[in-house]
Amino acid sequence: MQSSNFLLLLLFAALMILHRCDARRSTIDGSSKLVDNGETLVSAGENFEMGFFSDDDGLNKYVGIWYYKLSPRTVVWVANWNNSIQGKRIMNEDNSVVVEDGNLKVISNGYTYFSTRLGSGSNRKVELLDTGNLVLVDESGVEMWQSFRNPTDTFLPGMKMDRSLNLIDSKNENYTFQLDQSSDKEYVIILPKQGKILWKGSAKLGKLSFGEMPRYVAYMLSNFTNKDVVDNSLESIGTFNKYRLLMNSSGEIQFYGWDKEINGWSLMWSAPNDTCDLYKYCGKFSICNSKREPVCKCLPGYKLNPPDNSKAGDFSGGCSRMSVSSCNEDNVEVLDTFLDLRSMKFKSPNKIISNNSTREDCRRFCLGNCTCQAYTYNDSVCWIWDTSLMPLQENYAGGFNISVRVSISDIEATRRNCKPCGINLIPYPLSSGPNCGDPLYYSFSCDDLAGQVSFHTSNGKYTVVNFDKDNKTFVIEAAHKESVGTCDDKGPVTGISWFNQSSPFKVINWCYNPEENLTSGPFSRGKDLILISWKPPLEPFCKTSEDCNDWPNSSCNMTKQGERRCICQTDYKWNGLILNCSSSSELGTQGSFITKLASSRNQRTLVISISVVLGVITLCSISYIIYQNTRVTRSREARDIVLGNHMEHFPRRESFGEDLITADEKRRIDVPFFSLNSILLATDNFSNAAKLGQGGFGPVYKAQKFSQASRLLC
Ligand SMILES: *[C@@H]1O[C@H](CO)[C@@H](O)[C@H](O)[C@H]1NC(C)=O
Ligand SMILES: *[C@@H]1O[C@H](CO)[C@@H](O)[C@H](O)[C@H]1NC(C)=O
Ligand SMILES: *[C@@H]1O[C@H](CO)[C@@H](O)[C@H](O)[C@H]1NC(C)=O
Ligand SMILES: *[C@@H]1O[C@H](CO)[C@@H](O)[C@H](O)[C@H]1NC(C)=O
Ligand SMILES: *[C@@H]1O[C@H](CO)[C@@H](O)[C@H](O)[C@H]1NC(C)=O
Ligand SMILES: *[C@@H]1O[C@H](CO)[C@@H](O)[C@H](O)[C@H]1NC(C)=O
Ligand SMILES: *[C@@H]1O[C@H](CO)[C@@H](O)[C@H](O)[C@H]1NC(C)=O
Ligand SMILES: *[C@@H]1O[C@H](CO)[C@@H](O)[C@H](O)[C@H]1NC(C)=O
Ligand SMILES: *[C@@H]1O[C@H](CO)[C@@H](O)[C@H](O)[C@H]1NC(C)=O
Ligand SMILES: *[C@@H]1O[C@H](CO)[C@@H](O)[C@H](O)[C@H]1NC(C)=O
Ligand SMILES: *[C@@H]1O[C@H](CO)[C@@H](O)[C@H](O)[C@H]1NC(C)=O
């Protein structure tokens, strides 16, 4: 009796399952509907499923399409995305999907939450296809409507992005992704409420195009028809078998592939991915670098436009040339030149001038034509920009060189200013060469190829990310490879400072973080930024009176210390803060060096003053003694294996002076980054020699070298 009951139960269960299987269908027509009782449509090949689902809160009901049996449920289309059915997660047979008057509708209690809104017709049916497309066809099979032409936030293979299609972030309706209406090649993310473009990009099309979007995405967007962007790379990635493009609710367009190996979605691309990716974030003739604060910067020889912008740091107006020569094709050679910039990303040039020319031809053509703003020459092709050069993006992997027109007078290297290095203006008194700036500040070098400035310390050199002339600061980057040297406000280890007392440089922030308050985003840097300040300089050194032409109201004269400097004329006093001879009446706190010497009660100044007065001989003897001390200390320290190991890695300079920066270093094939930890270990060595610093004279590069140099001098 019991066993027959059991058999009956089994039979019943089997019938139920069979019934379920029978019930599985992919179509709805006028006589059948889909009710909110757990029933779904499943495409014939079991790729996609359609039915009712609740949102995360469980308060709203929607009708949508998702991948069949894929966990987590990934919804790719929603019928009533902007008109949800209120109600708890529980099933409710009042909710249904029907084909009524020839339209697909989502209805509940007599209210229509979604309709395809076609003219009425009979014998129509909808079918969920294996592509994920839901199609409404009439009795003769003619397609009347399809979800692929009415997407929500997801683009699936088989759809085609044309001018009438857009993806909308269905959560907030803050963002849409669509084809740029003025160009069939570019795609945009738009803020529809503000009518603003957030991002614009395309696949790499021509030689000087950058490809903000991978070709496989562009290829998929064209429904695999655009021959310009044919791409087989997706097919070659065997572990992916599903793809989708999503306009997400934080404004990013994301491309996902389903990875069979990890059994999950893998984010293959997303945009915007960086502050500089944002559409026109910086204006014309400016350079964008998201690692820098400020992010936008005018090119050397260019000024912010308009100069007195009410909103500080507003770069939307871009930059323009400081002095625009009255361009005239006869004299242009003497007035204008080009800034040669490396590894830049830019908007494609508007003109190809010649195909089969030389670089020099290209340069001469651009220089000789006043409408030419910039050129780039690559593989015998000369490209020209006649229009404003839109923002450039610095240090762009796969970027190109570009030469931008500038007035010679605005960038010329003078006795006073060193030549710009790439896009960096090296402000006086900082120096990157023996014949410019102030020799005391000659701690920089320029890698012309990369357009990058390096700052030299006893431990090696560090890339300078930014100079701030007004604040007298600059930022360098150091890799944080070792956990010991993690960024710490006080510097890695207390009691050890990077520079000795006489150094004009001082670390003011070991963990400078300009991005703290910038747009958040996945901008990981993997490097520590260090903020360094420099002291105002004394009167500039000079050899001849011409050297002082850059310093009005001064003349080249011998100081009491036997140095030739541009000494301010009577009634003027040197002001190191504004780098000028100020008339006595407007003199600020920063008096002339000589005046200071006489009047200062400041102890440190006094120490400096005394040592200067004592002159080179005293200095030399002190140096020599300390050098000897240092050697003793160093040999003691050499026993410290850790320090010994670290010291091995630090480049040493064996000579001093003009060849401080060797040709080899200028080439800078591979700049090593040093962790704060190693800097520390090394600066220990440096700080032992710091006693030297009280001389108030002498270079800052390397204590050890300083002593050697002093020895040489004596
Ligand atoms: C929802 O969006 C569709 C298509 O954009 C629109 O036609 C419809 O009026 C919207 N419904 C509501 C309730 O906003
Ligand atoms: C995309 O291409 C497929 C295959 O060629 C075609 O059947 C389909 O209709 C196309 N989709 C659209 C929206 O044009
Ligand atoms: C996006 O939408 C939400 C809700 O509508 C709103 O609060 C938010 O400010 C919007 N964000 C943007 C960037 O427009
Ligand atoms: C949108 O995409 C970005 C980048 O992929 C991601 O960081 C962010 O969390 C996403 N937002 C949402 C709401 O999923
Ligand atoms: C963001 O950009 C960086 C550098 O351009 C790239 O390495 C990274 O893969 C990008 N991330 C995504 C999700 O596209
Ligand atoms: C330059 O000329 C060569 C040969 O005439 C041609 O193959 C190439 O496509 C041209 N390049 C451009 C950018 O016009
Ligand atoms: C300079 O360029 C403009 C625009 O490309 C062109 O119309 C003009 O003929 C050029 N002038 C010379 C002297 O080549
Ligand atoms: C010229 O273009 C190629 C790639 O198209 C690039 O690798 C090369 O660096 C470019 N040369 C210059 C000088 O920009
Ligand atoms: C640097 O200068 C800017 C104005 O030019 C000022 O707002 C900022 O506070 C200064 N920063 C420091 C660290 O002095
Ligand atoms: C960033 O913002 C916070 C508060 O919004 C402020 O306390 C902090 O000083 C800011 N940091 C910088 C570097 O401006
Ligand atoms: C140079 O200094 C001497 C004495 O200090 C002074 O008499 C002379 O006028 C100075 N020369 C110039 C050109 O200022």
Automatic annotation (TrEMBL):
EC number: 2.7.11.1
Domain Apple, chain residue ranges per copy: 327-418
Domain (Bulb-type lectin) ranges: 26-149
Molecular function per GO: ATP binding; protein serine/threonine kinase activity
InterPro entries xrefs: Bulb-type_lectin_dom (IPR001480), Bulb-type_lectin_dom_sf (IPR036426), Pan_app (IPR003609), S_locus_glycoprot_dom (IPR000858), SRK-like_kinase (IPR024171)
Transmembrane segments: 606-627
Protein family: Belongs to the protein kinase superfamily. Ser/Thr protein kinase family.
PANTHER family assigned: BULB-TYPE LECTIN DOMAIN-CONTAINING PROTEIN, OS01G0783900 PROTEIN
Protein name (record): Receptor-like serine/threonine-protein kinase
